[in-house]
Write a structure and sequence with these properties.
The structure holds two protein chains of two kinds.
Chain A lengths: L21 H6 L4 H8 L2 H11 L11 H6 L10 E6 L8 H8 L1 H14 L4 E6 L4 H16 L7 E6 L9 H8 L23 E5 H13 L1 H4 L3 E2 L2 E2 L1 E8 L5 E6 L2 E2 H8 L9 E5 L8 E2 L6 E2 L1 H6 L8 E6 L4 H15 L5 H18 L5 H14 L7 H15 L1 H9 L28 H4 L1
Parallel strand pairs in A: 1-2, 1-4, 2-3, 7-13
Antiparallel strand pairs in A: 5-6, 7-8, 9-12, 10-11, 10-13
Helix pairs in contact in A: 2-6, 3-6, 5-6, 5-7, 6-9, 13-14, 13-16, 14-15, 14-16, 15-16, 16-17
Chain B lengths: L3 H9 L9 H11 L6 H11 L3 H8 L13 E6 L2 H5 L2 H12 L12 E6 L11 E3 L2 E3 L7 H10 L2
Parallel strand pairs in B: 1-2
Antiparallel strand pairs in B: 1-3, 3-4
Helix pairs in contact in B: 1-3, 2-3, 3-4
Classes of the chains: A alpha/beta, B alpha+beta.
């Protein structure tokens, strides 16, 4: 593929052959870097991560080397490495493909990182729905164990059970400790008091799967990939109204337009592009006019949005933005853990108001109320989930104000049932709870 | 066949603290109780991990994959989040409703199939994602639905 920006590091070698077996991964040099890493002093490895300038691939984009260097030393407690494989941000399915294509690259990254932070205890928290990927990783780990590559390190594969919030780092730690996955207040940060109140490094699957390549190239050389403040590659998840959805690994700074139109084959059925969500459903939307924004942290920030999880959702001109806002808000309402008020109550308010606007039962005041509720959530919650609901909804109003206004002026949806998102049922709409006994209703 | 208690002890040994084994223990209990968690299941998990049944229930109720009421022998779960919705998830849901004669959240009268809606399943570029007994089918279109339902009806 000669398309602009394609550069495979994390997924390298996995498209034309099956790399899930240990022998196949070793045939392309797998686990040689682990051997090299184990000859190195731990601090020398962290220095490579710092030089690489690699930023976390989960969504927040925090520099991985700095996070590792924050780990408390001399606490007398074990240090834990916890890998976040609880990929749940709507639009995102890259970690899943990394796990089913290159499980050994992830495991090698775990073992190198464990050596760097002097840890012998690794947990991989994989979302419960990823059964196939769990089986692949489990089999890969058995092979690694059998080949004697663990060298005293234990890697526990821990399956979640269906909760978006467990992708938030402290929610994940709570869940791993056997509790409801409700985020903790910080500080203390996980680097000081994380899993079992011990120093803990938490990284995303893609970040850890990048580690072998950082070592192979050397941090300074890796840092030359991509653009300033956005080193390396990202696996972008492309979905929605696009001909060829899928995961595409590109150098950071690549063209969003090229991802959608060249790699993705453009918008199907001759439709027009209306909007793009560039980093998972929690980030502000871009309009069709902004499709030339580059795929890197700074360019997205300048455009008023975020690179987030690298999930690019393409939306064509059939979609009603009020319905989009409603569906996004319903998701965050469903996933709100209930611990803090602005998120627990605010997400319900967003859903109610958006329902009223869509159904033509709202006044001008309620449009302002919608933005006011967003404002009362933003920056006021314990964890980023509240912001994840408020930011996109506010952006839909601000960038498609006219469409929201038409709902109010015309007393309902101007699409008149023709929107691609018309009456989509959400899990919050379905029957749950104990069925009412027959005699109670008689 | 080893007892539930013994199997949970094996899982428990992987973790520094017993309570960490609660999700795998609940999953195992659910598998042994026809896909849901009745009162006895919480008592068994509590007993195996030195917790209380109420605590086990409070944890289970937080997670979408634990069922607190009976489910059918087969679970059909449709993702209706944004990416799948943009490519026709609602049409898939409607086809399933029609084919099964039930609404999302319900189970067919013969106890065979439960239909559920789920949040983003992580197959966005290959939507609509439908998970049949936790195995992903991607992509599923409305016209694929009769075949899937027939397969489950034939399969027991």
């Amino acid at each position: 593929m000669a398309a602009e920006g394609v550069r495979e590091i994390v997924l390298a070698g996995s498209k034309d052959r099956d790399l899930t077996k240990l022998a196949a991964y070793r045939a392309i040099g797998g686990y040689e870097l682990l051997a090299r890493a184990r000859e190195m002093a731990p601090q020398a490895l962290i220095d490579e991560f710092l030089a690489a300038g690699v930023r976390g691939r989960g969504g927040a984009g925090f520099p991985m080397g700095r996070k590792a260097s924050f780990l408390a030393k001399g606490t007398g407690k074990p240090t834990y490495l916890t890998v976040n494989a609880d990929e749940s941000e709507p639009g995102t399915f890259k970690d899943r493909e990394i796990m089913f294509r290159v499980p050994h690259r992830l495991i090698e990254g775990c073992l190198i990182t464990a050596h760097a932070i002097e840890s012998t205890n690794v947990f991989i928290y994989i979302r419960g729905e990823y059964l196939h990927e769990f089986e692949i990783l489990r089999d890969a780990l058995e092979e690694v164990h059998g080949a004697g590559l663990l060298d005293g390190v234990t890697i526990v594969l821990h399956r979640g059970a269906g909760a978006y919030i467990c992708g938030e780092e402290t929610g994940m730690l709570e869940s791993l400790e056997g509790k409801r996955g409700q985020p903790r207040s910080k500080p203390p940060f996980p680097a000081v008091q994380g899993l079992y109140a011990s120093p803990t490094l938490i990284n995303n699957v893609e970040t850890i799967a990048t580690v072998p390549k950082i070592l192979e190239l050397g941090g300074a050389e890796y840092a030359k990939l991509g653009v300033e403040n956005s080193a390396g590659t990202r696996v972008f998840s492309l979905s929605g109204n696009v001909v060829r959805g899928g995961n595409y690994e590109l150098e950071l700074g690549a063209s969003l337009r090229s991802l959608i139109y060249d790699l993705g084959g453009g918008i199907p059925d001759g439709r027009q592009l209306k909007a793009v969500i560039p980093g998972g459903s929690s980030v502000p939307v871009l309009t069709a006019d902004e499709v030339d924004t580059a795929l890197d942290f700074d360019s997205m920030a300048q455009a008023g949005t975020m690179l987030g999880s690298g999930a690019v959702i393409v939306i064509d001109d059939r979609a009603c933005m009020v319905q989009l806002g409603l569906r996004v808000a319903q998701f965050y309402m469903h996933e709100s853990c209930g611990k803090c008020t602005p998120c627990r109550e605010g997400t319900r308010w967003l859903v109610q108001i958006l329902h009223a606007i869509e159904d033509g039962e709202s006044s001008q005041d309620e449009l302002e109320l919608l933005l006011d509720v967003c404002d009362r959530i933003l920056g006021k919650c314990l964890c980023p989930l509240g912001d994840a609901a408020a930011m996109p909804v506010a952006s839909y109003v601000n960038r498609f104000r006219e469409e929201f206004q038409r709902h109010i002026d015309e007393g309902g949806c101007p699409y008149g049932g023709a929107s691609s998102l018309d009456h989509v049922l959400a899990p919050v709409d379905q029957h749950t709870g104990t069925p009412v006994p027959q005699e109670a209703t008689a | 066949m080893s007892t539930f208690y013994d199997e949970v002890q094996e899982i428990r040994a992987r973790y520094p603290e017993a309570r960490s084994a609660i999700l795998p223990a609940l999953r195992l209990a659910q598998e042994r109780h026809d896909g849901w968690l009745p009162r006895e299941a919480f008592e068994e998990v509590a007993d195996a991990l030195d917790l209380t049944p109420a605590y086990c229930r409070s944890v289970a109720s937080f997670y979408d994959m634990f069922h607190l009421e009976p489910v059918g022998r087969h679970l059909v779960e449709v993702c209706t989040n944004v990416s799948c919705a943009l490519v026709g998830a609602q049409q898939v849901v409607e086809a399933l409703e029609q084919e099964l004669g039930i609404e999302p959240g319900e189970t067919t009268a013969d106890g065979r199939i439960t239909l559920r809606l789920v949040e983003c399943a992580g197959g966005c570029g290959w939507g609509t994602v439908v998970a049949v007994d936790h195995r992903y089918r991607e992509p599923v279109r409305a016209e694929d639905v009769p075949g899937i339902v027939q397969e489950l009806r034939n399969g027991g």
